Amino acid sequence: MADGRLRIFDDGPLPGAVNMRRDAALLAAQRVGDPPVLRLYRWSPPAVSLGYHQDEVDFAREAIAARGYGLVRRPTGGRAILHADELTYAIVGASPSATFGATLHATYAAINRALLSFLQDLGLRPDVSAGESRADARGLVCFRSAGQHELTVGGRKLAGSAQRRRDGLFLQHGSLLTGPRHAELAELLAPARRAGQTRETVLAVTTDLATLLGHPLPEAQLAGLARRLGEICAATFDLRPAWEDPPALA
Amino acid sequence: MVADDRKYTKSHEWVMVEGSVATVGVTEYAAHELGDVVFLDLPEVGNEVARGEAVGTIETVKAVEDLFTPISGEVVETNQAVVDSPELVNNDPLDAGWLIRVRLSDAGELNQLLSAAEYEELLED
User: Using one digit for the tens of pLDDT, what is the confidence trace for A12-47?
Assistant: First the structure.
């Protein structure tokens, strides 16, 4: 039962297929009234994740495999991401609920309050994007444009997010960029779909925490940032942080 | 004003019956709340579907949601126009943005749907 706790665990770096399986399992196990769950993780090796409805033929599967990257599909919507340098979160909870509001937009707003607080705590001045065109939303690369509710710093996209909703529950995925490797995705589109997109065109409209903080962020630092994000999420949601050991790998 | 030529569900679908076939779509309220629809999966024609079952998905710019059927029966037609142009769901949810047509297996289920007046009351709450 909901008991004022936010269950939190940091899974560290894991392969893409394991990450997606764990998030899907969290949503499947959650019931209305359960304490919400925040799962923090990274990706090793890097992996391309496709949105729920994206077509694999738009991506260069051989090139992805040749670089040793994984290729997975998210249960959430949105466009593709190359997860390499990032802090990733999954939040599973109920909507309608006091913590996450009654609507899709209220849930995004509640989680954004925590993310904004986390970024402000790092000394940054983030903004929330008002949205993008439907054509951009149907594009291939998530970080190519900032959709509604997504976070920018200095007009450049820093964090993307997407939800899956069913039966009064939601799973929200979010990626906070911590380095530049996400932009390699431009080279991993099927050749016919690149249409002038390069690593540079993606980097021109994005930013990342290493750049903004002025130093690289190895795993030890990312784990510390994940810990801080967990504490700030709990405080923002007015819940008690309950850190748990991640479940054993299936 | 809610159109009074059809029935509604608490989850913001509408159902319009002609003979033994019901057309299902999402309401103007849902179309607005969902935001821009970018992809739809609809069930195969010929599938038997049961009331309350997830029969497809609707993806907007910010979420993927299951699409539930409020009535049971055989899917006799799906709207390929909305698959090709998902913006129809936002622009004309009550007419050109319809989603599926189902041959009713239990007309009694219609009694469990909301009237236009009841749905309007739900929206006001």
Answer: 999 999 999 999 999 999 999 999 999 999 999 999
The predicted structure's pLDDT at residue A250: 56
Mean of all residue pLDDT scores within chain B: 94
Q: How far apart are CA A3 and CA A26, in angstroms?
A: 18
**Residue A163 contacts residue A150 (beta carbons within 8 Å):** no
How many Å lie between the alpha carbon of B95 and the closest alpha carbon of chain A? Answer: 21
The pLDDT tens digits of the residues spanning A45-95 come to 999 999 999 999 999 999 999 999 999 999 998 899 999 999 999 999 999
ipTM of predicted assembly, 2 dp: 0.81
CB A246 within 8 A of CB A238: no
**What is the enclosing helix (H) or strand (E) of A9?**
strand A5-14
Chain B 64-83, residues with CB within 8 Å of chain A CB atoms: 64-66
- Domains of chain B (ranges plus CATH)? 7-124 (2.40.50.100)
State whether B63 and A134 contact (CB < 8 Å): no
Confidence of residue A1 (pLDDT cuts 50, 70, 90): low
Judge whether A233 counts as a catalytic residue: no
User: Is the Cβ pair B61, A104 closer than 8 Å?
Assistant: no
Question: Who among B39, B54, B61 is closest to A148 (CB)?
Answer: B61
- Find where tokens 């960029």 sit: A177
CATH domain A5-243 topology? BirA Bifunctional Protein; domain 2 (3.30.930)
Side-by-side strand order, sheet with A70-73: A70-73, A47-50, A81-83
Q: Is the pLDDT of residue A104 over 90?
A: no
Nearest-CB residue to A164 (from B33, B39, B64): B64
Q: Check CB contact under 8 Å for A104 and B33.
A: yes
Give the nearest partner residue to B63 out of A132, A164, A167, using CB atoms.
A164
